[in-house]
Design goal:
Largest sheet: 6 strands, antiparallel
CATH superfamily of the largest domain: DD-peptidase/beta-lactamase superfamily
Strand content: 15-25%
Shape: elongated
Helix content: 25-40%
Number of domains: 2
Distance between the termini: 32 Å
Order of helices and strands: HHEEHEEEHEEHEEHEEEHHHHHEEEEH
Strand order of the largest sheet: 2-1-16-15-14-13
CATH class of the largest domain: Alpha Beta
CATH architecture of the largest domain: 3-Layer(aba) Sandwich
């Protein structure tokens, strides 16, 4: 009975809006929706932001698990609060910034400001610059500082009753190599390499920094420690990534670790204090409220969407995409961060050979029993359409629901008035 009611809504909406071959298009969508197994929870909203016409609205106020579509809220809030040019950095500081004599008198620090992309290779580039500048000795300690965020590294510790299926490395302000290290173990007579999460990110960074300094020929008198840089420490060098570049990795490839680090950065920027999950959540909720986005049923507990405690509606996602669409300062950075159907990211193998290929820009979301997609598609008449399709299911595999999503988007891409 619910499916029949759904079909009536779709037919009613489309009958009034599709001028060319409406029966054919309605039949195609009818067939797609009839293929949904009974008991599936779904929400679909299709909207024209320029005419403000809602083409299809099915359960658009129903609370659903968004999965990685949560990243759209993280991204939009970050762009509004920080701007696309904002640098997320890792900095080298010291008690002494005059190294003309080859010596740093005192401590040298490596401090993270939310740059999750920093690698050992990046560190070596900075050390090489220090060495080329004449540095040969550090009289104090090498200190790793991640106090830009709190030290609650695990999502299970900041999300009440969370037992995520996806385990991430420690979420910290100071990151080297995604806070993982490689160890070798002998198994069946052969050594194999394994990634292991580091337990203490700032100490790990300090040890790595000290070891690399020594390998370059710099004498280090002190030890490797975790701590906080002196407030009078002088900046020497930094390595950074701009927010717009980070968002392209987060959204196109649905990088959960990077998204969670950005989530904490939001909290710090929003509060002007140490970044934590409470401030981060408040930053996103404040963004939703300030932009008058439909918020009933919305609950955000992380930045990536891998928590099943995240709850949003199709109406909220469409409202978010509409607000960004009309934000001329931020739209390009947001739009360019989305995966392109048939081209890249999580959509690279989808909608190939259809009008949606190299046309639809969107974000996918997948968890066990959850499949969602939201984004922008341009019709054959050059009309921009916002689409959100969400499923929670117990029957069938994820490919079935992705196929239904793709089919609807392909129909819209080929729509000609």
């Amino acid at each position: 009975m619910k499916i029949l009611a759904t079909l009536f809504l779709v037919i009613f909406s489309l009958n009034n809006l599709l001028a060319e071959e409406p029966d054919k298009i309605i039949k195609e969508i009818d067939e797609l929706i009839l293929d949904i197994p009974a008991g599936t929870k779904m929400a679909i909203m299709i909207y024209n932001p320029l005419t403000q016409d809602t083409l299809v609205s099915i359960n658009h106020t129903e609370t659903m698990i968004p999965a990685s579509n949560t990243k759209l809220f993280t991204s939009a809030a970050a762009l509004e609060l920080l701007g696309g040019d904002y640098p997320l950095s890792t900095k080298i500081l010291a008690d002494d910034d005059d190294i003309s004599d080859g010596t740093i008198e005192g401590n040298i620090y490596i401090k993270g400001f939310g740059n999750p992309t920093f690698t050992t290779e990046d560190l070596e580039k900075l050390i090489n610059q220090l060495y080329q500048s004449g540095l040969r000795k550090v009289t104090g300690n090498v200190i790793g500082d991640d106090t830009y965020f709190d030290n609650v590294y695990s999502r299970d510790d900041w999300i009440s009753e969370e037992h995520a299926n996806v385990k991430l490395p420690p979420i910290s302000a100071l990151v080297i190599d995604r806070n993982r290290t490689i160890i070798s173990k002998k198994r069946k007579g052969r050594y194999r390499n394994y990634f292991v999460n580091v337990e203490n990110p700032p100490l790990f960074a300090a040890k790595t920094f000290r070891e690399k300094l020594i390998s370059y020929g710099v004498e280090v008198t002190g030890n490797s420690l975790s701590g906080q840089a002196d407030e009078n420490a002088k900046p020497l060098l930094d390595s950074s990534i701009k927010l717009r570049e980070l968002l392209q990795i987060i959204n196109k490839h649905s990088d959960n670790f990077y998204a969670e680090c950005l989530f904490k950065t939001l909290g710090s920027a929003y509060s002007g204090q140490q970044g934590n999950s409470f401030f981060s959540t408040q930053a996103i909720l404040n963004f939703i409220e300030d932009n008058s986005i439909y918020s009933i049923g919305t609950k955000i507990v992380d930045g990536s969407g891998i928590s099943r405690f995240d709850q949003v509606t199709a109406g909220a996602l469409v409202g978010l995409l509409e607000k960004v669409y009309f934000n001329f300062k931020q739209f390009d950075d947001f739009f360019n961060s989305l995966s392109i159907a048939g081209v890249d990211g999580t959509l690279r193998k989808r909608m190939i050979g259809t009008p949606a290929e190299n046309n639809f820009r969107g974000k996918t979301g997948t968890l066990n029993g959850v499949s969602s997609i939201a984004g922008y598609v341009t019709t054959a008449d050059d009309d921009d359409i916002i689409v959100c399709i969400m499923f929670e299911y117990t029957k069938g595999g994820t490919s079935k629901y992705k196929s239904i999503q793709d089919g609807i988007i392909e129909i819209l891409a080929g729509w000609k008035n």
